[in-house]
Design goal:
Elements lengths: L6 H4 L3 E5 L10 H12 L4 E5 L5 E2 L2 E2 L13 E4 L6 H11 L3 E4 L10 H16 L3 E3 L5 E3 L21 E8 L2 H13 L4 E6 L8 H10 L5 E6 L5 H14 L2 E5 L4 H11 L6 H11 L2 E3 L2 H13 L8 E5 L2 H13 L9 H11 L6 E2 L3 E2 L6 H12 L6 E7 L5 H21 L4 E6 L4 H16 L4 E2 L2 H20 L1
Parallel strand pairs: 1-2, 1-5, 5-6, 6-7, 9-10, 9-11, 11-12, 12-13, 14-16, 14-17, 17-18, 18-19
Antiparallel strand pairs: 3-4, 8-10, 15-16
Helix pairs in contact: 3-4, 5-10, 6-7, 10-16, 11-16, 12-13, 13-14, 14-15
Length: about 475
């Protein structure tokens, strides 16, 4: 099978949803999938499926798959595991090309009957030429194909319909949901996201090979608990890393974590040292959590490679600046002491260093005018000793009466600075403890995201992402 043959999974012309009850008093996962696809604007045919029949949301609920008129490309199964063998037989008879098994109760449980059931379902699927996603997973998110699995839970919005360059392959459904929401909130949108669970049939290699060749994907990220075929995965990973940046969070690196992986998705975790050696060999960016995965992916998408590791941090707050110095230096970056001539220029712009600090980090007067700030920051950015500019704003460190005004001024300065300097620029919005500060942060983050500026919630996260980013480009520019 060639990777391109998986296009039908991301762009099905029709979807049947098994387990959709017409009884509004019995909501369940199948109804969540149904409403999600409708709200998302899925362009194809949707067929609810339930033995009781009926009608839901203006759609006829079919009692059997064979009763559905016309072809069915894709089936989402939210029925209990014990009913899956018959459903897959029906899929084969109907000519369904792919089935996503949401339900758990297969090889991830300790009972041997779950493993046997998974084998049975897989055999039926292979004999009937039905490809399986899962079981025990959330499925496919593909904005361009109208595919989503953002359940219509109370007080939860759906996933963005806007496509982007980012692909995620995740063994965990929960981590997949987190990543989609976190990345899109920060302006990075998706070509594809796949939650594949137990990987009884289609696995991490199939999806990695696919997104490597996918012209809509520019950055690949993976959450992995274990793999099915080590040699094939290594080949696929080598080819992917040669074509695009690849970011991987490999979980289950401790004995306890490995046990958790086995009970979560039946994965065999493997040795942490072996994984790290493989990633180092192939130039993979390894991270240690989903937040780090999003941070480096945002950096890859929105920041151009700096010429070196010299960072200047500018904003308000002396103690905040000390923390920034520790975090960036601790991550292996450099915060050079600004040259005396440059500091004299800053003195000339602001008139005095009283209440400020013109070394690095820069503690600049928060009440200064936009023009003064821009003049000063452009001067700093033009220095040969500066490779990256980090603008920081401590949202909860100013009086409530001034905070909104200062935040607007900060946004104005950063927006204008982005257009007027050639050095990479990023933003740290931090210390958002109060509800008002969190609202300001949300608004500012959205506005910076629209400008495709990398924004981080702390110095430490910004520093780790920037260090990995520079290491990645240093390696790939030299290979």
């Amino acid at each position: 099978m060639t990777p391109s043959s998986l296009d039908f999974i991301f762009n099905p012309r029709s979807i049947a949803l098994a387990g959709v009850s017409a009884d509004a008093s019995k909501p369940g996962p199948a109804q969540w999938y149904l409403m999600s696809l409708i709200k998302f604007g899925y362009p194809g045919k949707i067929y609810p499926l339930h033995p009781a029949g009926g009608e839901i949301n203006g759609l006829n609920v079919y009692k059997k798959l064979e009763e559905i008129p016309g072809e069915v490309d894709y089936v989402v199964s939210a029925v209990s595991a014990r009913h899956t063998p018959q459903l897959i037989r029906d899929c084969a008879a109907k000519g369904v090309r792919a089935a996503h098994l949401f339900t758990s109760g297969y090889s991830e449980i300790e009972d041997s009957s779950g493993k046997q059931l998974e084998k049975e379902v897989l055999q039926i699927a292979r004999e009937g030429s039905v490809r399986l996603i899962g079981p025990n997973c959330m499925g496919i998110y593909c904005p361009s194909g109208g595919m989503t699995f953002a359940g219509d839970y109370p007080d939860q919005s759906g996933f963005p319909t806007q496509p982007g360059p980012f692909a995620l392959i995740s063994q965990s459904g929960g981590n997949c949901i987190y990543c989609i929401r976190e990345a899109s909130e920060r302006g990075l949108f998706f070509s594809k996201a796949i939650s594949y669970g137990n990987a009884a049939d289609l696995n991490e290699c199939d999806f990695l090979e696919y997104v490597t060749d996918d012209p809509a994907t520019e950055i690949i990220a993976m959450y992995i608990e274990g793999i099915k075929d080590g040699e094939r995965f290594k080949r696929a990973l080598r080819r992917a890393a040669a074509a695009k940046p690849v970011v991987i969070y490999k979980a289950g690196n401790t004995e306890t974590g490995a046990r958790a992986c086995a009970s979560h998705t039946s994965a065999i975790a493997g040795s942490a040292a072996v994984w790290q050696a493989l990633f180092n060999q192939l130039g993979i960016i390894q991270v240690n959590g989903m937040s780090e995965l999003v941070d480096i992916s945002i950096t890859l998408a929105f920041m151009k490679p700096p010429q070196g590791r010299n960072v200047v941090v500018a904003g308000s707050g002396g103690g905040v600046g000390v923390q920034a110095a520790d975090d960036f230096t601790g991550a292996g970056l450099h915060m050079p002491f600004l040259h005396v001539d440059l500091r004299r220029e800053l003195h000339g712009i602001y008139g005095s260093e009283a209440g400020s600090m013109f070394r690095n980090p820069l503690d600049i007067p928060p009440l200064g005018s936009v023009d003064h700030h821009l003049m000063a920051l452009r001067t700093v950015a033009d220095s040969k000793d500066v490779d990256v500019v980090i603008m920081q704003f401590p949202l909860d460190l100013w009086a409530l009466s001034r905070r909104t005004v200062l935040m607007e001024r900060f946004i104005e300065v950063v927006t204008a600075l982005r257009e007027s300097i050639s050095k990479p620029l990023a933003v740290v919005l931090h210390y958002s403890i109060t509800s008002q500060a969190r609202r300001l942060e949300e608004d500012a983050r959205a506005r910076f995201a629209a400008l495709q500026l990398p924004v981080y919630p702390s110095f430490s996260r910004a520093a780790r992402a920037l260090d990995r980013f520079i290491r990645y480009h240093d390696r790939h520019n030299c290979v």
